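User: My advisor, Dr. K., asked me to get a structural model of this assembly before our group meeting. I'm new to this, so sorry if the format is off. These are the inputs:
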Amino acid sequence: MRPTVAEERAHAMAEQLEDWELTADERRALEAKLATPWRRNGTFVALSFFGLTVFGMFALIALCKSIGATEFAAGIIAIGFAEYLILKRRMYGSGIESALWICGLLAFIFGLPSSGAPEWVLIVAAAFGIAAWRMQNALFGTIGIVFAAVYPAVADHSHDYWRAALLPLGIALIAVVAKWWTYRRPWLDSLWSMVAIVMPLVAEIAGNVASYDSRGYLERAVVFAIAGTIALVAGLHLGEHALLIASGVSFAVTAYEAHDLFTTPLEWKLIAGGLALLALAGVVARALRGRTEGLVATPARLTRFDEVVKLGATMVAGSATHENAAAADTGLSGTSGGAGSFGGAGATSDY
Amino acid sequence: MITYEPEIAAADLPPGTAARLLAMQRRELFSLFAEVRTLAWIGAMLVAGGVGVLLSHHLKEIGPLTIAIVLAVAAAGCYAWAWLRRERVSLVDDSILLLGAMLVSADAGWMESQWHLFGARALLFLAIFHAVGAYRYESRALLSLAVGALAGWLGIERHIEQLFSSDVDLALRMFACAAIITLWREVDRRTRKKTTFTPVFDHTAITLGFIGALILTTKRDTTTLGLLLTLVIAAASTLFAFRTNVEPFLLYGVLFGTLAIDVWVWNTFSGDTLRPLITLATAIGAAAVLMAAHRRFRSRRA
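Assistant: The format is fine. Below is the predicted structure of the whole assembly, which you can bring to the meeting.
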């Protein structure tokens, strides 16, 4: 039906071997011990299969509609084929069956007559929840919880920030507490990690959208600062990177909410904030220098995409700087073709 | 939280390795390396962003020359910091170096916008400056800025909508840029045995080549030529993946190839049933090809 606890743990361990600095012999031996009958793929390959399958599902739905069949037919075909791949071909984590399951369920939902009721977010949440349970997929689970958490923001028309933000914020705190338990199934641990990371942001966005107000307020800044501090302390105590990232997200929301509390111009806030972060990083790096136990600074990575994300984001940040600089000279923002919008940090000649 | 202590204890690993892994699982060792580096990188980005806003808001108060001098001094300070500490590099030094490079970029763009010193060639000079910095400091971040400036000099837009709105000229410029980067890569690889820059060159060149070919595929006049070019590049990318044991190039080949076929189908055929039918068939075919290639790739690596 699906991998046992031991098999799922073996899969999760196999994905971490690259970070464990093993010799080639040690790695081979461990890989042999962790082998299971399930056919899985690494992150990049699974993402490629997932994308191809989603692409194919769009075509299948369009095809079904063009021949007079409904989205339900596409949904049944997709889920039936996913189950065939899982039960007969032992594929679990290849990227294909996850895409078939979620696209199949979403095809069902989009085939339903639309009444415009806000409960649609709960139906989508349920779809992602079912797919998460079937595929042991933490990302689907997180998306499902996000949809459930924004229900008050969609359904409530009081335009009250806290009515919309309280549920996601509460779920974020539950996730932080849930990380205290030791789980047997790795996907449940990943689920709580992802929920702890995204929920502070979901709370802020849902609150701002519901209240039609993006101004910063002291009480919101204080609440998110407290949430961030709780996540930071828990992360350092438990040794959990996910909670440290969650605390970073909460502190970023705190900074955003605090931006209206000071009359200092934006540019000086950005520069001062950046210098403060650089100084903080320098102090922590200095404090960790030479340590060999407890908190250390030995090379490690949070994800396999650390460098790619940083290089990509550097280009985006450079583009933003460029647009601001361009606006200073021409009164316009952005570029409109021709040479020069590829440079970092304002480096172009097409102002 | 999760721990794999039972599995590691039962894995018959050498005592030293097992002890190290168990210490990690028990969080007796907990590295903040990535967090500290990310914090420093965000700090550098915020400062660079703040400088960008500063340029747009305070031109009249500060004056162009003062801004140019202050940016140059700040950038020189960052480079000097990184240079003086090159023997005892800490976790934040590469972010300070990146900040310096971004300030140089901002300063160069600023001076060009004010005094029009070099015209479009300013970006070429900037690319050379960042490239020298990349080699001097062995920094892939500076190299990516250099490649970005080079692409900008060739007039390549970074926005995704360019894929559908641009003309053949942009595609040719992308091919030219990919060719220059490939040449640069070869020179770098042959002259420096321990280079770490090759992946940056490889991924950038192949992506530019694919996007250039896709632009041709999206245009009705050149759609067949674009498809053929994409398939040729896809075949080369797949061969390269097998030769270098780097799987992402296999994925690029299959994904871009599939996309090009589907764009060509939508450009060439009409009909509400035929188009999705062929798209579905190509998706299934691509998945089957990728599965077979991936299996072969794994068996070769094993």
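One thing worth pointing out at the meeting: The radius of gyration of chain B is 24 Å.

User: Perfect, thanks a lot.
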